[in-house]
Amino acid sequence: MDDDLTSSSPASKNVVFQFFVRIGQIYQTYLDKATPHARARWVFAVVLVCLFLLRIFTAQGWYIVTYALGIYHLNLFIAFLTPKIDPALDLDDDMGPELPTKSSEEFRPFIRRLPEFKFWLSVTKSTLIGIFCTFFDAFNIPVFWPILVMYFITLFCITMKRQIKHMIKYRYLPFTHGKPRYQQLNQEK
Fold first, then answer.
1. How far is the C-alpha of 123 from the C-alpha of 118, rounded, in Å?
2. pLDDT (tens digit, 9 = 90+) per residue, 106-151?
3. Which of 27, 33, 72, 175 gets the highest tally of CB atoms within 10 A of its CB?
4. pLDDT higher than threshold 70 for residue 98
5. Is residue 89 a contact partner of residue 154, using CB atoms and an 8 Å limit?
6. Contacts for 48 with CB less than 8 Å, ≥ 6 apart
7. 3 state SS of 112
């Protein structure tokens, strides 16, 4: 009799808990299906951002939400461009670690601090939250929006200048154009 009580936990009988577990499984299934389709994912994210901007332009408000979303996307982008192991923190020698420039040096691949899929997922989620926030007047705080735009542009330029200098100093390029393909030599006799 005691075995029956201990084997069936209250969580297994809780319908609400099981509902949210099932929702999480469905959500994860769709994320798994979307993973190999990078272009389609980014097109979807750009469409969402455009819908958000359209909502902002037609409603003429929610500039604080837009500013916060822009700053968050900028932080995500910087994390996407930054290597997982920052060469500036490796102080073994005077020059710091660098990518190999000769064939005899060790190859260390570029590993991002924020992988592409997590970058896309964060952009998509935050844009959906931003769209959701535009339906509530509590988030429509009156501000003089040109100041926010100028401050965002200034912040973007300063941040990107620092990131580009870091990329040049430690000689890494965070973008690749796909998998390298090697051509076979035709050896005809």
1. 8
2. 666 778 889 999 999 999 999 999 999 999 999 999 889 899 999 9
3. 72
4. no
5. no
6. 124, 127, 128, 131
7. strand
